Amino acid sequence: MKNSQNITIVLLLVCAGILTAMLITMHVTNTPVARANTTVKQGRYIMATGTWSSSTDFVYIIDIAAQQMNGYVADRQGRRVTPLDKVDLSTAFGRARP
User: Fold this and answer.
1) How many domains would you assign to the chain?
2) Are residues 22 and 66 in the same domain?
3) Beta-strand (E) ranges in the chain?
4) Which of 53, 61, 62, 98 has the largest CB neighbor count within 10 A?
5) d(CA 7, CA 97)
6) Which of helix, strand or coil describes residue 20?
7) What are the φ and ψ backbone dihedral angles of 23, each rounded to 5 degrees?
8) Angstrom distance (rounded) from CA 56 to CA 83
9) Comparing C-alpha atoms, which of 65, 84, 63 is closest to residue 74?
10) Phi/psi at 54 (5° precision)
11) What share of the chain has pLDDT > 70, as a percent?
12) Are residues 24 and 38 in the same domain?
């Protein structure tokens, strides 16, 4: 009985060691993570997301009625969100036809 308990304890320790090594490797490596870029339309707004680098993402919000686009850059390492210049879409792409 004591021998089977020792084998069980050794196997549990080996599993714990493997899991610990996997966690350490996952946090130490600087492998970029794949992210899906999304676009969502809700009412008169369109939101589009994108990835610039492994630590920098951006969001564009388009107001269809006002024909304006606002952009924001999210820097996860610096933990800040920086607004970009507002773009008037009617000026950038010409006046919309009535």
Assistant:
1) 2
2) no
3) 39-42, 45-51, 56-63, 68-75, 80-83, 87-88
4) 62
5) 78
6) helix
7) -65, -45
8) 13
9) 84
10) -70, -15
11) 82
12) no
pTM for the full model?
0.53
Strand partners, 69: 62, 87
**In 3D, which of 43, 81, 77, 79 has the Cα closest to residue 62?**
43
Q: Indicate whether 51 and 92 sit together in one domain.
A: yes
- What pLDDT sits at residue 31? 53
Average pLDDT in the chain: 78
The percentage of residues in the chain with a pLDDT greater than 90, rounded to a whole number, is 2
Judge if 68 and 43 occupy the same domain: yes
Q: Does 14 have pLDDT greater than 60?
A: yes
Check whether 4 has a pLDDT greater than 50. yes
Residues 67 and 20 in one domain: no
Range of the domain at 6: 1-31
Asked if residue 37 and residue 21 are part of one domain, the reply reads: no
Strand-pairing partners, residue 56, are 75
Are 48 and 95 contained in the same domain? yes
Residues 49 and 19 in one domain: no
